[in-house]
TrEMBL record:
Domain AMP-binding enzyme C-terminal, chain residue ranges per copy: 435-510
Family affiliation: Belongs to the ATP-dependent AMP-binding enzyme family.
InterPro entries assigned to the protein according to its UniProt record, in alphabetical order: AMP-bd_C, AMP-bd_C_sf, AMP-binding_CS, AMP-dep_synth/lig_dom, ANL_N_sf, ATP-dep_AMP-bd_enzyme
Native source organism of the sequence: Micromonospora chersina
Gene3D superfamilies documented for this protein: 3.30.300.30, N-terminal domain of ligase-like (3.40.50.12780)
Protein name, as recorded: Acyl-CoA synthetase (AMP-forming)/AMP-acid ligase II
Domain AMP-dependent synthetase/ligase: residue ranges: 43-387
Keyword Ubl conjugation applies: no
Pfam families attached to this UniProt entry: AMP-binding (PF00501), AMP-binding_C (PF13193)
Record-level Gene Ontology MF annotations: acid-thiol ligase activity
Keywords: Ligase
Statement: the UniProt record of this protein carries the keyword NADP: no
């Protein structure tokens, strides 16, 4: 990434504002010695703004950047002295959004250990698989998960919230930390909507490039107050944490997402930005808006597709502040859509940010024409380093396969049609469930909808639509089919229309298709 662009972007966002020389020197020295990992970012923030509030929880309790760093260092020293954690070990973190999760991740990285971010929605059996496959030495967990981890190996050290506080309080004095012999990595588990989650090794940034790619398109600034509603164990929530540390922002965290509580916090703090997943925006739209609009400048979402009509409806209520980032655990980011683009095309994934290459390729690896559907390949500075199993993803000319299908319009906007393995062939026709979902979601009676492919003896596969309606609303299955038939081709009409109370989702808001398929035995 070219230096003038980096400097111009950092200047616009306030990162090059002058400060006390001794603190600026300490900040730069922290990055030089500790690098650009989460631990390094926390160190630079504490060096530059030690007294600034770093984290506020749902009860209003706050920690400054210096306090957060001190607690993380004390935990690291106790993990090393008491539990033998060292460079190359793996520390599992099974926590909701609170400062203890941040301290555990940073502590692991300070020692050169890998932090494995564990999805709070995993079952006991899945947790056992993760513990074995990732070779966890320690599991830091919230007290609420105590019963779920009973079946884990006895030799696995367990650190609950009470024990974590004891380790922090009992840290040996004078045991200074030095940069480890190896950088600790962050291992993010894939969402596991179709099977067991896989561990993906996230790279450590090597400079300002990744940050600049994001804040150039999403207008976040130094010292913003940011509510991160997306789970921190998810790629998007973790990215929000990294960006917030880099900007020396004040981070607001709630253990669980509640739409009314979130709206109250946005006004009470007050917050400049909200990081969320799309289903959270849907829930915010279902509660009465506050008397006065929250002072939001940015609402940034990622993690799944925006349902049809949601972008426009949300901006009509809360202003043109919505930014939609399309990416994945493996490629980090691919494109970003801003408010103007979402007003023009509410389902677009936007354009690649600066320093990102994006190509739509056919099965032979050749670029396809605008408007034609192909496989989405992405290249940037933060492509993952492979799965912990040793497996990788297909790449072509430095571009990584996202596993998604999509198309570009003549104006250069990307549209994602869905996962390549979600596309079905019905009677010889290619059908994309996402297109049908977006259409059905526009029905005013529909709260949420998922469309999947199911086996069919005559056509090979057919579409099945699962609809959850707003309270008090009704719909006739044939009316739904006729509505789709009016707008789309006959092979896109769902043969089955099933009404459910709610759609099964994982902790990051993605619909669990495997649970819906159980309806068919």
């Amino acid at each position: 990434m070219d230096l003038p662009f980096i400097v111009a972007t950092l200047t616009r966002r306030g990162l090059l504002n002058p400060g006390r020389p001794i603190r600026v020197a300490s900040q730069l020295n922290a990055l030089r010695r500790w690098g650009w990992s989460l631990a390094g970012e926390l160190r630079q923030a504490a060096a530059r703004d030690p007294g600034r509030v770093a984290v506020v929880d749902e009860h209003g309790a706050a920690l400054t950047y210096q306090e957060l760093l001190d607690r993380s260092e004390r935990l690291a020293r106790s993990l090393r002295a008491g539990l033998g954690v060292q460079a190359g070990d793996r520390v599992g973190v099974l926590c909701r959004n609170h400062h203890g999760l941040i301290e555990a991740i940073v502590a692991a990285m300070l020692l050169g250990a890998d932090a494995v971010l564990v999805n709070t929605g995993l079952s006991a059996a899945q947790l056992a698989t993760v513990a074995e496959e990732q070779g966890l030495r320690v599991l830091v967990h919230d007290a609420e998960f105590a019963e779920r981890i009973l079946g884990l190996p006895a030799e696995l050290h367990r650190v609950d919230e009470r024990r974590q506080e004891e380790l922090i309080a009992g840290a040996l004095p004078g045991d200074q930390l030095q940069p480890p012999e190896r950088d600790g990595r962050t291992i993010v588990l894939t969402s596991g909507t179709t099977g067991a989650p896989k561990g993906a090794r996230r790279p450590t940034p090597h400079g300002f490039g990744p940050l600049v790619s994001i804040i150039d398109r999403i207008p976040l600034h130094v010292h913003d107050t940011v509510l991160i509603a997306a789970p921190l164990f998810h790629t998007w929530g973790y990215a929000a944490l990294q960006v917030s540390f880099a900007l020396r922002a004040t981070i607001v965290l709630h253990r669980r997402f509640d739409p009314a509580a979130t709206l109250a916090a946005l006004a009470a703090q007050p917050c400049d930005a909200l990081f969320a997943v799309p289903v959270m925006l849907q829930r915010l739209m279902e509660v009465p808006p506050p008397a006065s609009r929250p002072p939001l400048k940015v609402v940034a979402v990622s993690g799944s597709a925006l349902p049809g009509g949601l972008a426009t409806a949300f901006m009509d209520r809360y202003g043109d502040v919505l930014h939609n980032l399309y990416g994945s655990t493996e490629v980090s980011w691919a494109s970003i859509a801003g408010p103007a683009e979402l007003r023009t095309a509410p389902t677009t994934a936007g354009r690649p940010p600066h320093g990102t290459r994006l190509e739509i390729l056919d099965d032979a690896g050749e670029p396809v024409r605008d408007g034609r559907v192909g496989r989405i390949f992405v290249g940037n500075e933060m492509l993952f380093e492979g799965y912990t199993s040793g497996a990788g993803r297909e790449s072509r000319d430095g571009l990584l396969d996202t596993g998604d299908l999509g198309r570009m319009n003549p104006e250069g906007l990307l549209f994602v049609d869905g996962r390549a393995d979600d596309m079905i062939v019905s009677g010889g026709e290619n059908v994309f469930p996402s297109e049908v979902e977006d259409l059905i979601a526009r029905l005013p009676q529909v709260r949420e909808v998922a469309v999947i492919g199911v086996p069919d003896t005559e056509y090979g596969q057919r579409l099945a639509a699962f609809l959850a309606l707003h309270p008090g609303e009704t719909l006739d299955p044939e009316a739904v089919r006729e509505y789709v038939r009016h707008y789309l081709a006959r092979f896109s009409v769902p043969r089955d229309v099933v009404f459910v109370k709610y759609l099964p989702r994982n902790a990051t808001g993605k619909v669990l298709s495997r649970e819906l398929r159980r309806y068919y035995g």
